[in-house]
């Protein structure tokens, strides 16, 4: 009776499996980040507006709404402006830690067909999520140069990706 040959995989060979992926380009990453920031800004604006209405505070006219209103409010230590800024920072932190770190995909990334992976090909996890979030400061503070770096980087990785050991890939392009 002929025996069927089975491929033999040692633990070492199976462990050294190579994951082939396509990295995401800057335009897609930018659009995904834009969608995510729009979601966060919308939630923050809705909560802030609801709080202002509930407290019977005067609302600014449409012509007055803009970044300068927030800056002036923060400089004047307005409780509403500081609360809105704190809410936005808190929501952004939770949003990035949960979606980007734990799930490996934010809603904006899902819409654009992107996913974040670690060097091992899995979602980054809590530790890399925290590292990625903390390194956003390094990416954004110097006039966004860390983001622009992704345009010229061979793997299209921004500074926070390099520091956290993550890659942003095309979700539909993963091939084993």
Strand arrangement within the widest β-sheet reads 1-2
Main sheet summary: 2 strands, antiparallel
Global morphology: elongated
Can you tell me the number of structural domains?
1
SS elements, strand count = 2
Helix count? Answer: 9
Oligomer: single chain
Instruction: Write down the Rg.
Output: 22 Å
**Percent of residues in helical segments?**
55-70%
The N- to C-terminal Cα distance equals 34 Å
Low-confidence runs (pLDDT<50, min 5 residues)? 6-10
Structural class: mainly alpha
Name the beta content range: 5-15%
Order of helices and strands: HHHHHEHHHHE
Walk me through this protein's architecture.
This protein has 176 residues and is mainly alpha-helical. The chain is elongated. It has a two-stranded antiparallel sheet. The protein contains nine helices and two strands. The relative contact order is 0.16. Helix 2 crosses helix 4 and helix 3 packs across helix 4. It has one domain.
């Amino acid at each position: 009776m002929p025996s069927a040959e089975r491929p033999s995989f040692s633990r070492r060979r199976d462990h050294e499996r190579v994951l082939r992926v396509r990295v995401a380009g800057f335009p897609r990453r930018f659009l995904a980040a834009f969608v995510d920031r729009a979601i966060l800004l919308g939630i923050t604006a809705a909560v802030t507006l609801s709080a202002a209405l509930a407290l019977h505070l005067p609302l600014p006219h449409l012509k007055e709404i803009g970044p300068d209103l927030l800056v002036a409010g923060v400089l004047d230590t307005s409780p509403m402006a500081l609360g809105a800024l704190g809410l936005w920072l808190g929501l952004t932190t939770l949003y990035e830690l949960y979606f980007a770190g734990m799930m490996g995909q934010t809603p904006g990334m899902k819409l654009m067909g992107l996913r974040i992976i670690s060097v091992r090909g899995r979602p980054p996890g809590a530790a890399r999520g925290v590292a990625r979030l903390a390194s956003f400061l390094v990416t954004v503070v110097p006039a966004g140069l860390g983001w622009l770096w992704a345009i010229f980087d061979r793997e299209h990785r921004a500074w926070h990706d390099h520091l956290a050991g993550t890659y942003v890939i095309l979700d539909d392009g993963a091939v084993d």
